[in-house]
Amino acid sequence: MTVAMNMKRQKIWRRRNLVIGLLVLLLPFxxxxxxNQFRTPGAMxxxxxxxxxxxxxxxxxxxxxxxLFAMSRGGVMCCKRIEGPTVKVTWILSRTGEQLRxxxxxxxxxxxxxxxxxxxxxxxxxxxxxxxxxxxxKWSPGLISPFDEVPKLESNKVQGGGE
Length: 163
Description:
CATH class of the largest domain: Mainly Beta
Strand order of the largest sheet: 4-1-7-8
Structural class: alpha+beta
Distance between the termini: 98 Å
Oligomer: single chain
Helix content: 25-40%
Number of domains: 2
């Protein structure tokens, strides 16, 4: 009877050790999975320039966003956390060859803008530069621009960006 009880205890301890061993192996994976599910990932920047002047460089809170030709869209810059109620947008306006011949100079600009509310699935921060050095920011889950179409204003026609 003692031998039978001893074998039963050994089976119980083997099972316990097996379960404890599996938990020790699986807990780091479970912890990593849960951590990644609840943290907000870094943002990717994408941009569009609706001005007649190229943008030599721009930054969102010191996160470089690249450069843009006049009247063009940019690529994607990855990845940095962008947080807080506001962001500092800094950009340098360059000039085309024709604008250089007309005597236009480089211009440095900076604005502090409210950071739009970010949803859980938002990955891309879209930055849009409009005539008159107006900057807009919007979050989206994909690369498709969340902005409405750019209205064709009289100021665009004067700058040569009209119909």
